[in-house]
Amino acid sequence: MIRFALLGALALGGPSLAAQGPLPKPLPKPAAEPAKPPAPRSSNPIKEVVRADLGPAEVGTPEALTASLYAFISGPKDQKRDIEKIRALFHPQARLMVAARHPEHGAFLRPLELEAFLSFAIPQWEKGFFERSTAVSVQKQDGVAQVWSPYDIRLAADGPAMYTGVNALQCAWDGKRWWITHLAFQSQATAALGADPGK
User: Fold this and answer.
1) Burial of 148 (0-12, 13-18, 19+ CB in 10 A)
2) Which 3 state secondary structure label does DSSP give 45?
3) Gene3D superfamilies given for it (predicted)?
4) Is 22 a domain residue?
5) In-domain check, residue 180
6) How many other C-beta atoms can be found within 10 angstroms of the C-beta atom of residue 141?
7) What is the DSSP letter of 73?
């Protein structure tokens, strides 16, 4: 009965809300969520460096891709290498592997990120470096190719071959161009370097 009497009084203009006491304080607004920090930059420096735009003559086939690699890294002493064009041959997630032999400890493998390799290799190339393919063999199935390319290295264009070796490139087609996705290589000194080429 009390409940119905209260409802009836309100309906008939009974005591105002003010007469019933002070209004309750409004509930505090929920605190605003803290601003989200900006997304961190990629920890992979390969994704953040500048890459040149290359055309079909340079990356249109696995053979062109391989020839471009030799052309871009080779040149006489003090000739600056175009690092953007060299990078642009490699897929952003490409890896390199050096197969080497220590004189005392024997064979070993050294995996390298592209940027680490370039930071070491470019100063050496700019002292005078000519790497030439002596043969190219390509096995291709749709968008995947394996390139086997023996090479020699000379310090001058008309100088003796100081090293011989082989590049094994794995390449992939993304619908527009070919990329080097993995490069493994091995080289050995020749007699011209004063070393026994059989070791």
Assistant:
1) middle
2) helix
3) 3.10.450.50
4) no
5) yes
6) 7
7) H
Residue 183 is inside which H or E element, if any? strand 178-189
Q: How far is CA 124 from the centre of its chain?
A: 22
Q: Is residue 111 one of the residues assigned to a domain?
A: yes
Alpha-carbon distance of 94 to 184, in angstroms, equals: 11
Range of the domain at 186: 45-190
Three-state DSSP state, 195: coil
Residue 36 belongs to some domain of the structure:
no
pLDDT digits (tens, 9 = 90+) for 71-107: 999 999 999 999 999 999 999 999 999 998 888 888 9
For the chain, the first-to-last Cα distance in angstroms comes to 108
pLDDT (tens digit, 9 = 90+) per residue, 132-177? 999 999 999 999 999 999 999 999 999 999 999 999 999 999 999 9
CATH number for the domain including 114? 3.10.450.50
